[in-house]
Amino acid sequence: MKKLSLFLGCITPNRYPGIEKATKLCLERLEIDCSDLPGASCCPAPGVFRSFDKATWLALASRNIVLSEEMERDLLTICNGCYGSLVDANNELKNDPALKKSTNAHLEKIGKKFKGTVDVRHIVELLYDEPGPERIKEAVVKPLDLRVALHYGCHLVKPSKERELGSAEDPTFFDELVEATGAESVDYPDKMACCGAGGGVRSALLDKSLEILEHKLSRIRDADVDCIVNACPFCHLQFDGGQAEIREKHGVLYDIPVLHYSQLLGLAFGFSPEELGIDLNLVTNQDFLEKLKKLAEG
Amino acid sequence: MNQSNISNALKDAGLEILTCLQCGTCSGSCPSGRYTGMVTRKIIRKARVGEDILRDPDLWMCTTCYTCQERCPREIKIADAILTIRTIAVHEGIMLPAHRRVSELVIEHGHAVPINDAVKEKRKKLGMETLPETVHKYPEALADVQTLLKSCGFDKLAGSEI
Ligand code: SF4
Ligand code: SF4
Questions:
Q1: Which residue range forms the structural domain that includes residue B66?
Q2: Ligand 1 lined by B72 (C-beta under 6 Å)
């Protein structure tokens, strides 16, 4: 496997640092060579920047990719939004000489140049590829007896023509990774539906965004699960922060704990909820933490 | 920008919308459409026939989930078209106030979601460095990001010059 650099984005380091720590712990345990990516910025956020100005989107995205090129490492994302933004920018710049030229004219001003020598990866498709669910299963020390509502998130699998990860309507690769931890990935209606955060909707139209979220939360509640698992800190923020906002605005209590896949995997690798920052979410569900404690002792 | 220019701009971006059947598969798939006034099919129709689309609030209700684009029987790149129409709107000076604020955050901090004191505490509690290995920690890296934003004219576009 090519060496990697860890692209943090904004929400992970600046809102949910537990996801950052969990990711590093898991990669180390799996002996995957992944370094920091010093000086990286916002990917930039696809929903807003990509729709504002293409040149700006490509300039900022390419700078992040160039930082990884300079280290001769593929760039690893742990967020669907960062993944979508950077993988699309990387492909467009690799395939369109005119765009590459105009983007490099901006990069020249900071002494950088996009070459097109590395790939952009997402932690879920990376882990599925190598080491793969079977070897992850072998590395598990505390099999998790948990019922999980998995949320793929839109930009991991769509647009499917560009992602090339198979079916966008009924994918299974992420479920296999969840089940490698011993957890059960429970089927539920509208599993592939959007969380409502993307496209600048959460930032500009919060109430509408929460209505879309609440539909999904109600489906998940009916599925009677222990927690929600995602692979995107923006979906994570929407599920976790959104439940707190719904409680405040509508007085409705869902209380469903939310974990990034790195945190779920970290639990299966024997790290404690505190080491993984699971107790630092806005929705802290005492029953869930108790259950994790029992699993750790058992 | 007048309407025929919008169709042309979409076409230039490889986004053909004239083959739309007005079948409504897109609207039927839309998570936003269930809760907002947004009707995806109408956005495509308006963009096609020349009604004013740039000031249509529906334009900003799309979460970019790409479900419509996956299911369109004519393989119209609907979500990409909506993003491109947004680009035209922004260049005409139409931007939601919340999005202007997010733009300002990136111009100032290099992050759309910058760090705050509460999260610094969380990082400490986790035994991590207070500042992440990003532009937050490296001022010269932030300066590079700002140089790029200026070079692209983004500061002017977002209405806050660096
Ligand atoms: S699904 Fe495609 S063809 Fe049908 S109305 Fe929407 S854009 Fe037109
Ligand atoms: S991409 Fe936008 S318009 Fe299309 S289904 Fe999703 S929210 Fe609706």
A1: 3-91
A2: yes
d(CA A27, CA A11): 20
Interface of A with B in 110-129 (CB under 8 A): 110, 112
Nearest chain A residue (CA) to B60: A201
Residue recorded with tokens 């490099």: A104
- Rg of chain B's alpha carbons, rounded to an integer? 20
* Ramachandran angles phi, psi of A74, nearest 5°: -70, 150
A11: which chain B residues are within 8 Å (Cβ-Cβ)? 113
**Alpha carbon of residue B76 to chain centroid:** 19
Q: What percent of chain B has pLDDT over 90?
A: 73
Sign of CA dihedral A50, A53, A57, A58: positive
Chain B positions touching A49 (Cβ under 8 A) are 103, 106
| Ligand 1 atom index nearest CA of B19 | 3
Instruction: Write the ipTM.
Output: 0.93
Is the C-beta atom of B76 inside 6 A of ligand 1? Answer: yes
Model pLDDT for residues A205-260, shown as the tens digit of each residue: 999 999 999 999 999 999 999 999 999 999 999 999 999 999 999 999 999 999 99
Of B27, B45, B62, which is best to mutate to test ligand 2, by the most ligand atoms within 8 angstroms of its C-beta?
B62
The number of folded domains in chain B is 2
Domains of chain A in sequence order: 4-123 (1.20.1050.140), 142-297 (3.40.50.11810)
Question: Does one domain contain both B84 and B138?
Answer: no
Whole-angstrom distance, CA of residue A41 vs CA of residue B141: 8
Res. B161: pLDDT tops 80: no
Same domain, B73 and B142: no
Q: Are B74 and B134 part of one and the same domain? A: no
Looking at the fold, whether B81 and B137 belong to one and the same domain comes out as no
Question: Which of A24, A37, A42, A68 should one mutate to test binding to chain B, selecting the residue with the greatest count of B CBs within 10 A?
Answer: A42
